Amino acid sequence: MTELVAQEEQEEIDEFRITKLDLSRIVTENDTPVDNLFSERQMRLLAESLYTSWAGPGEGRTFVAMANVGLFFHLHQPPLVPNVLVSLDVTLPSGPWEKEHRSYFVWEYGKPPDIVVEIVSNKVGKELGDKLLDYARLGVAYYIVYDPGQFVSQHPLRIFTRQGLRYTEITDAWLAEVGIGVTLWEGEYEHMTDLWLRWCDQQGVLLATGQEALAEKSQQLAFASQRAEQAERRAAALAAKLAALGIDPELD
Question: Is the Cβ–Cβ distance between 53 and 213 less than 8 Å?
């Protein structure tokens, strides 16, 4: 019992130390432009469609999605900066301008992200080298590399799942532990037509962007209005026929 109490006290001390870390020297943003127009849109597409159309991994479970934000896993190590990360069962903290809330600090959120997506835009990013090892060691469950220009691989989409301390490549695009899938989709997003990486459900149905959801809602309303107009015309035609037969449709 004494050992258990001592362990609990030590955990409380460790937690206190973590929450009181001096972050004043950590650089959470450097204002340096990164990547190209396609990659910038691709990152936004992935984050936006999640917040627009995904309820999360299950009832009552939350998630956060971030694009191009520092992922800090050690106080004295530089951060990783994934193009997109998704983390389950966490919420965004209040006060986003506070130092400890500006990036994804693993010790603040209590866990590593569940998905990391890297979008390859050149041959020097080491997406299938150092980053592959780093994210596995960090404990990220799924690592996705999208290489539309085939700079580092002959396959534009590669998906890895963590087993032990390493990643194993998989062909299944359904990320079962998260409850979401990925697919490639050719179409237009923000006035740019290309082959995009998209989220989807288990049946392959895309998670809609805000614009797509609005267009679908407008289409549904237009269809409902059209059906109502057709019903009115049929009722008017029927009333005219009854009137021609000398029958008043208003009478019981």
Answer: yes
CA distance 118 to 146: 6
State phi, psi for 167 to the nearest 5 degrees: -100, 145
pLDDT digits (tens, 9 = 90+) for 112-157: 999 999 999 988 889 999 999 999 999 999 999 999 999 999 999 9
Q: Vertex 49, ends 89 and 222: CA angle to 5°?
A: 130
Helix (H, G, I), strand (E, B) or coil at 214: helix
User: What is the pLDDT averaged over residues 178-187?
Assistant: 98
DSSP, residue by residue, 51-107 = HHH---SSTT--EEEEES--EE--TTSPPB--SEEEEES--PPS-TTSGGGSSEEHH
The per-residue pLDDT for range 217-238, each reduced to its tens digit, is: 555 655 666 776 777 788 777 7
Distance CA 211, CA 217 (A): 10
Distance CA 136, CA 98 (A): 29
